Amino acid sequence: MSPSSPSRFCGRLPVWLFAALAVGSCPAVTVTAAQPPATDAAQAGQPRGVGTDASAATPGFDTVIEVTGTVVGARGKTLMVERADGEQVTVWLHEDPTRLRFIADAKPAYLRKGMMVRAEASLGPGAIPTGPVGKVEIFQAIPLAGLPHSAKERFTPGIHPAKKGDARPQAGFVPGDYGVVGMVIGMDTAGIYLNTGQSPLPLPVGAETEFTLNVNNTSLVQPGDPVSIEGFHQPPDETQIKANSVVIRPERVFGDDEGLPNRRQTRRGSRRTPAAEQAYGRQLPNGRNPNAP
Question: Is the pLDDT of residue 71 over 50?
Fold first, then answer.
């Protein structure tokens, strides 16, 4: 969602709707020869798996390839892609889930309780945001084992210093810029309410706030979604690729009202008091957070 398409935040829990599929891309393929450096495993005569970067290509898969096309389907750790020439390519996904990104525009109507979101926020005294956030990113949990600390923070509920190297205060709260990660526990006209694992946090949104999805799996992928792949292949075969990175960027917008079912059930739910107000009172929309860190 771009700033030119303002979001209006509904004061009631909205209808959760998915947009219709929109397909459009200009597939292409580019091949560049490259020899990745040998790893310790390779020097020891052991096969290399789909590990990290160029040095992780399996034996024979030592030529860099870039492919753009559209998704045909996904199963397990493989992705089927159709190029512009109609050729189908099999892509083995990287073992690091962050190397796969499904990025899509969304609307506030897509949000519901239990979803995980992250945002960059300027927090004042009492850990209260000083104004609406510019962007809300919806994501899904992934296994954190093996990820660097900076990557883990993006998936770990909490209030994290925005600048790397900034230490968390030992006592009290220091106003400043923070990365906020948490689970949605409620929504109203003031914004979103998050469980950060430390305290409930109101996250104000405005007309210019962007909502996006950044998901590290294929659960939301549909046939026809545009995709870009960087990886390795074994010449002359360009139809088998070990992926180093995959970006899927659908044109459909999540949260568009397309008349999907369950309208009646959602309207009944919207009459209830938001969970955040039930649990923490109506102080939250007024900018008070009694449980601030």
Answer: yes
CATH code for the domain in which residue 91 is found: 2.40.50.140
pLDDT in tens, 30-68: 434 333 333 333 333 322 333 344 434 477 898 999 999
DSSP 50: S
Q: Which two tokens mark 2?
A: 């771009």
In tens, the pLDDT along 259-279 reads: 333 333 333 333 333 443 333
What average pLDDT score do residues 168-195 get?
86
Q: Quote the CA–CA distance of 283 and 56 in Å, as a whole number.
A: 53
Residue 203 near residue 119, CB atoms below 8 Å: yes
**In this structure, is the dihedral angle defined by the CA atoms of residues 254, 258, 264 and 270, taken in order, positive or negative?**
positive
The CA distance from 206 to 161, in Å, is: 23
CA-only gyration radius of the chain, Å: 22
Strands 191-195 and 176-188: antiparallel
Contact call for residues 116 and 139 (beta carbons, < 8 A): yes
CA gap 271, 103 in Å, rounded: 32
> What count of other Cβ atoms lies within 10 Å of the Cβ of residue 98?
15
Domain that holds residue 68: 28-102+216-248
